[in-house]
Amino acid sequence: MSSVTDYEAIAAKAAVELEEAPAQEVLRWAAETFGPRFCVTSSMEDAVVAHLASSVFPGVDVVFLDTGYHFAETIGTRDAVAAVMPVNVITLKPLQTVAEQDAQYGPNLHDRDNDLCCALRKVEPLNRGLAAYDAWATGLRRDESPSRANTPVVAWDAKRRKVKIAPIARWTQDDVDAYVAANGVLLNPLLWEGYTSIGCAPLSCTAKPGEGEEGRSGRWAGSGKTECGIHL
Ligand code: SF4
Question: How far is the CA of 134 from the centre of ligand 1 (A)?
Answer without folding.
Answer: 26
